[in-house]
């Protein structure tokens, strides 16, 4: 179990250098291998380490789970989450996933499923949120976030727009100085791709660089009952939210 108030951070790692050789050696890297610059999301950073070190990540050896993050999606002695958070909600229940946390603005974050029994995922905007009913709001649509398997994992930005509409990838990228179009090429076991470091605005194909492909259908907007007082904008690049509770 986890204490209430455990931190949920944004998608990015601060980077790996010689100062993290002990961590990288534990992953199977030889000295001088596995170095990754900051501003890369944890999933991509892990696969960059795997490619450079010639190892598989994550992997299991005996009873040991070997990964940058543990099986719940968190790490370090000053424990915090980046991904998954599967330990915080029931993946075999029915209906909408339970609440796992809240943003600094107290917007709720839920597990990954829109309908657990049907294995139905929600359709999310570039911030990682959408309008719909939740266990805490069964009679009224509210804007809320879901955990995602792909970056930004939880909160990419604070939505919705002032008019209640969902946030597009192009809009999200205007919120961050890091989304400047200055890209690098990153190498993973799956190949090489362009990456815009410190940009948490990913399109439906999982890319944060190049043309801003839709995260959601352009015609998808808030319901007519949606409030219009929330202001879309950037999150901090480190801490995005704090968990409201744990199972």
Describe this structure in words.
It is a single chain. By secondary structure, this protein is an alpha+beta fold. Helix content is 10%, strand content 22%. It has 3 helices and 14 strands. The chain has helices spanning 21-27, 42-53, 169-174; strands at 7-9, 12-13, 40-41, 59-61, 64-66, 74-75, 80-81, 99-103, 108-110, 129-134, 137-146, 184-188, 191-195, 239-242. The strands form 4 sheets. An 8-stranded mixed beta sheet has the order 6-7-1-14-8-9-11-10, with no helix packed on it. A hairpin with a 2-residue loop joins β10 and β11. The longest helix is centred in the N-terminal third of the chain and has 12 residues, at 42-53. It is globular, with a radius of gyration of 18 Å. The N and C termini lie close together (6 Å). Mean pLDDT is 87; it is low at 217-231 and 236-247.
